[in-house]
Structure formats: structure tokens, C-alpha cells
Amino acid sequence: MIIEARNVSKSYTHKQALENINFTIEGPKIIGFLGHNGAGKTTFLNMLAGLFSATEGEICVNGENVFNAPHVLSEICFVAESGNFQDEMTVAQSLKANSFFYPKWDEDFAKELLQVFALNPKDKVKSLSKGMVSALGIITGFASHAAITIFDEPYIGLDAAGRNTFYDLLIEQQAENPRLFLLSTHLIDEASALFEEILILHEGKLLLQKDADEWPQHVVAVKGSPNHVEQAIEGFEVIYKQSFMHEMTAVLFTNGKEIEAENITIGSVSLQDMLVYLSKKKKVGSTR
Amino acid sequence: MNVLKGSFYVFFQSYKKQNIIFWCILFSIVFLSFFLDSFFGKYISFAITISIPVYIFYSTMASKILNRTMPYFLKLGLSRIQYVLHLGLFFLAWSIAGAFIIACTHEIITFFSELLDVKDIIIIHPVLLFDTTQPFMLIVALDFVLLLFCLISGLLLNVVFYRLGTIGGYSFIGILALIPIVMVIFEWYTPLFEVLSKASVFSILSSLLLMTFLIYSVITGALRKASAIPA
After folding, report:
1. pTM metric for this prediction
2. Pairing mode of beta strands A205-211, A247-253
3. Where does this protein have coiled-coil stretches (chain B) (predicted)?
4. Chain B closest CA to A114's CA: distance in Å?
């Protein structure tokens, strides 16, 4: 499965949500689709699932535009933050409804997962807690066996045990039945080890697309005296810079280039920290 | 075909409860009216209407169906055209079911009135405008067309609010409210009434069906690129 975003832009009445996004992702793979609040992740994922049309550009799966293309969309299972089920239907009815729409629906697996997440098939969706609805979404995502499975904040309200079950299932499914999983989450520390590729959106633009293995060589933190750090980071794209006492820390993209300078220390930056820095940068930018 | 079955399954399950509650209340009222009439009919005449509450119920249900179901179906991978097609087919099935229930209830009430010798019970139905003998198939045909028209009209209202937002929706209602005012000003109501009173039931039904089809075409066009989030 190949997902291509070609010059994708999306604007609302008072806001530009996405601006000229271009990238290609190829599965099977587990992809971390990251960014701070308002970065445009959910907008993009909604467009990939055919829920919105792009203002400009197009999103294609295997070369075909997804918008209003049912034969392409039947290969995509989108588990959104909310609104995945009809309130009046029971858990069993919701799963039965899914079986009509996903060609590779695995009913036995869905039943097995109902027991794993301790859901009562007779309960109505409207009577479920937030975590239980999330669990039902997770069951839908895995049992659909869709070639592209999108999880947008799939575990809101789920406890740590539930989230661990989700991560275990993700690894197990990727080993047994490989597909393209797109996972958007804010609990990055928990999930970062699962990602094989990372896409970061920032203020509606694609900031970075890297294989998870390449990450430590591309984003680094440089520490040292302000003079030395300033010298070292010259020519690099700086994400965040902070001075405290007589020490400066700069987080930068190196794009694999080596930093040649003395009296500095170079450290790695975790995904979680990177998003915190991006968020700080955004706040500084917006207050200026 | 599987997707169509799935759509019908979802529509049916989503509206099952409302339908059961509505018909239970309606039948209770009808039963109570019939019961009162059989005891007090000598002193006071009772009139029962089944069809009119059903028209109102169907219009109300259809005026909310888009917000409730379209985002859900789009998430399941349906295209907008598929959604409108499946919804249209569901409306057809729903109207036929409603029309049969209304006609059968008429028959049952008539049967029991004759059996219990309750003669002065009146069942109000639009068919009385055309045929006082109230033939079964004519009631079914008339109710089918009227129910379908109510459903499509309700859906049109929902589409207007969905696409144009609250201001656009209420403006549309305002424009609709102007029609009777314009009719009174230009005295169009007299020729209209004359045309309607002279027209046969079949010409009225076919005109209504044609209008329903036209509204449905407009709805299909309006939803072709609709977002999953209302305006």
C-alpha cells in the first residue's frame, strides 16, 4: 500500500489547517503521525479516510484519489477519537455492522478481543464509558484487517493496562498480519518504540519524515557555553534554543551532517522532547 | 450488495427504538379512542387519525438523519453517492412499511367497529378527499407517496442546515414561509384549489412522486462533496 499526499492544502473559513503537504509512505509499517495540538494531524487523517475533500491537491492510495472512492476506502479503517459508532446500537450490533463494510473482517478475532477488553456485547454504545468506547474502536481497527488502519488517539480514557494491551496487539498484528498502521497519539513516550517511521506535522506543514532508526542522527541537542554552541549550530536549522546560567542548549536538525566544534556535548533528543520544543517554539512565535 | 445490507442494518438498528416507542404510543391512543367510542359513542362522536401523526414522525426523523448517520457511514468507507442511494432505498422501504401499517390498522379498526357495532367512529385520512369508501390499496398508495414525500422533505431541511449552517437553514425556512404570503397577495390559492379539487388522485400522486424525485436529485447534488462535519 502506498499513500501519497500531493500538494495537499486544507483551509477553513478562518484557518489554514494544512499547507502544501507532500510525502509518500509505503507499508506495511507502523507509522507515528505526530504533532502538537492544532498541527493538522486529525485534518489530514480525516482527509485520508475520505471524510473531507482537500482544498487543493489530492491524497492517493495506490495512485487513486481516496475522496468518494469506495473500493479504495474499503481498504482503509479509520478509528477516530470519537463518533465511530451509533449510540443506539449495542456493542455486538456495532461489530456486526462493521462486518458488512470491511471485506476482510475477522469476526472470531473481534469476539476474542471483546473478552480481552472485557466488553459486554449486549451493552449499548451510549452506556459505555470513554475507555470502553475506545476499546471498541481498537477492536474495530484490528478486526477489520484493513490494509491501512488509522488510529487517531485510539486510547482516550483507557487505563495503562488497556494501553499496554493495545501496544501488544499492535506488535502481534504487525508480525502476523502486516499492514500499514498510522498511529496518531500524544502519549509519545509510551508508543515511540513501536514506530518504524515518523512523520511530524507542525503548524499545518510537514516538518519531518524519517525512519525511526535515523532519528538520533537527524535531531540532536547541543549543549555548552553560548559562544561555542552558537558557533557549532551555524548553518543548521535550529528548532529550539535556551540559555540557562552560563549554558546554552540548542535542538537542531542535522540531516545527517556532522557537527564540528569543540567544548560542546551532543546528545540525542527523544520524540516527546522534540514535540515539547516545537510546542514551545510555537508559543514563543505566537506571543511575538 | 453486502454494503447495502449493512446500511439497511445500521439504519434499522439506529431507528428501531424510536419506531417502537412511536407506534406503541400511537396504538395506545387509537386503542383508547376506540375503547371510549364503544362505550360513550352514543353521547359523543370520536375521530381517530393514524396517518397524520405518522407523517409528522417521519418528517421529524428525516430532518435529523443526516447528522446522525452520514459521518458514521463515511467513516465506514461509503461514498456520498452510495450513502444517498442507500438512504433513498431505506426511505422507500420505510414508507412502504409505514403505509402498510396504517392501512392494516384502518382495516382492523373497521373490522372491529363492524363486529362490535360501533358505527359512528370516524377515521380521518387524506383518502377521504378522493374516495369515501377508503379502499385498502388506495390508502397504501397514498400513504406511501405522502410518507416518502415527508421523509424527503425532512431530509432536504436537514441538508440545508447541514450545508449552510444555522443562519442558512433559518433563512431557507424564512423563504419557504414567504410562499403562502405571496400566494395570498397574488390570489394564487383560488386557482390552485380549483386545480387540486378537479385533479384525480392518480395525477396528484404522480405529481407528488415527481416532486419527491426532484427534491431527491437536488439532495444528491448537494451532498456530492459534503464534508463529514456539518457547516
Report:
1. 0.88
2. unpaired
3. none
4. 20
Residue for cell digits 406503541? B24
Region B42-59: what's the mean pLDDT?
Answer: 87
Decide: helix, strand or coil at residue B48: strand
* HSE of A58, CA atoms in CB hemisphere, 13 A: 10
User: Above 60 in pLDDT, residue A286?
Assistant: no
- The three three-digit cell numbers of residue B207, written as one number: 405529481
Mean pLDDT rounded to a whole number for chain B: 90
- Least confident span in A95-99, A206-210, A259-263, B62-66: A259-263
**Residue A98: closest C-alpha in chain B:** B76
Alpha helices in chain B (DSSP H): 2-40, 51-62, 65-75, 80-115, 136-185, 189-198, 201-223
Q: Are strands B47-49 and A264-268 parallel, antiparallel or unpaired?
A: unpaired
The per-residue pLDDT for A287 is 37
Question: Contacts of residue A51 in chain B, CB cutoff 8 Å?
Answer: 71, 74-75, 227-229
Residue pair B41/B121 in contact by the 8 Å Cβ criterion: yes
Q: What would the 3-class secondary structure string for A40-101 be? A: CHHHHHHHHCCCCCCCEEEEEECCEECCCCHHHHCCEEEECCCCCCCCCCEHHHHHHHHHHH
**What cell does A76 get?**
482503509
Bridge pairing between strands A180-184 and A148-152: parallel
Q: Are B227 and A69 an interchain contact pair (Cβ–Cβ within 8 Å)?
A: no
Instruction: Look at residue A145 and tell me whether its pLDDT is greater than 50.
Output: yes
ipTM of the complex: 0.87
State pLDDT tens for residues A186-233: 888 888 889 999 999 988 998 888 888 888 778 888 888 888 888 888
Instruction: Give the C-alpha separation, A100 to B96, whole Å.
Output: 24
Element (H, E) at A224: strand A219-224
Who's near B2: CB < 8 A, 6+ residues apart? A100
> With 50 as the cut, is the pLDDT of residue A288 above it?
no
Contact assignment for A100 to B5 by CB distance below 8 Å: yes
